[in-house]
Amino acid sequence: MSVTTDTSAPSTTGRSAAARPSIAGAVESSDKVASHLHPEGSFLVDDHPMPTGLEEIWRFTPLKRLRNLHKDAELVAGGCDLRAELADGVTLREVAADDAVVGSSGYRPSDRVSARAWAAASTATVLTIPTDTVVEGASFLTYRGLGSPTATAGHTVIVAEPFSKATVVLRFEGSAVLADNIEIVVGDSAQLTVVSIEDWADDAVHHSTQHARVGRDAGVRHLAVSFGGDLVRMNTSVAYDGPGGQAELLGLYFADAGQHLEHRLFVDHNAPKTRSNVDYKGALQGAGAHSVWIGDVLIRKVAEGIETYESNRNLVLTDGCRADSVPNLEIETGEIAGAGHASTTGRFDDEQLFYLRSRGIDEEEARRLVVHGFFADIIKRIAVPEIEQHLLDAVEAELRQTVGVPAVEVSA
């Protein structure tokens, strides 16, 4: 099934954030987050100070390149064409901003850009997987920017009802200046995979907040892929609706000269016997390439018996790159099954290169094989064949641009 929706027309009918309805069944911990690193959420734009770059949540972001998304300049709805290819059993609809499904993830904007986008979006796109539905194949939502320099806002809600199973792929293409909120609601005992691919043109700016609420004994797998764009800043967060929930957050990014790719993650273990695993890998090449990865896991007092691990690994291919990687654990109870984190940033493994070259493989091909091997385990976990091949081709295209001798600048 293929559905095309034009969301390009500017709109001035976005509802005030203060007018949003209260959310029945919202995750209580989303109202007040006891994290030292994750600000309390609020729908009111004025509750979020204008960023200066000195704040913890903004200190790595080049604010001048946000194209005024964080300021008081007009932010309008639309700016992208939406094309949908839906698997059998999956439905898509557009609802008003005050519809009950909007906000059903329990998310409250934790920064000024997200709050502005929430207030400006006059409608939301809602994709639903019905109860007890096991979907064969993936559903695709492709957002294509129309090249307008006007800052725009969007809102998408993905609902996997109880006992359902599905895969949803979000693709961002073309040129746009976009701030959006994506809510992911996973019902009890449902299993949902969401793949978000940033494949923008070189001049695009995208600030995306993607929040998942995971029900009792449910599971969500979220894969963030960033290749395109001038500046991409993605905030991914998870909270739980009951015990037994599982979250796997995977990421893959490749920063070229001048690109800024920033991924910030927050896992809120607000229920007992929940699990999370975070695994992000990135490569960098070219002068001014900059990647940022901030991981934060909050384990609340009530979250006994949880298990969590977060990892970020960066591979620097040329001179002039910078990788910032900061893992964090905030633990309020000692009654946990396990918690840990790891972060590494470095050049090619000389032993790997030596081994391959000693087998008659030239240096350029050896480097290519090492990079493909570096990304392979995450790509294989996607389980969407056409996406896997697309990512392999994208990595290969990036590698064809690699020149020079690897060097590294690390900040943590």
Low-pLDDT segments, ≥5 res: 1-31, 403-412
Instruction: Tell me the span between the first and last alpha carbons.
Output: 46 Å
The shape, in one word, is globular
Overall structural class, as computed from helix and strand content, comes to mainly beta
Largest β-sheet summary:
19 strands, mixed
Number of domains: 1
Q: Mean pLDDT, rounded to whole units?
A: 88
Topology, number of strands: 19
How much of the sequence lies in strands comes to 35-45%
Proportion of helical residues: 10-25%
Structure in words:
Residues 1-31 are annotated as: Disordered. This protein is mainly beta and 412 residues long. The protein has one domain (2-411). It has helices at 112-120, 350-358, 363-380, 385-399; strands at 2-6, 76-77, 80-85, 91-96, 123-129, 134-160, 165-186, 191-198, 205-214, 219-226, 231-240, 246-255, 260-269, 275-284, 290-299, 307-316, 322-331, 338-346, 410-411. It has a 19-stranded mixed beta sheet that branches.
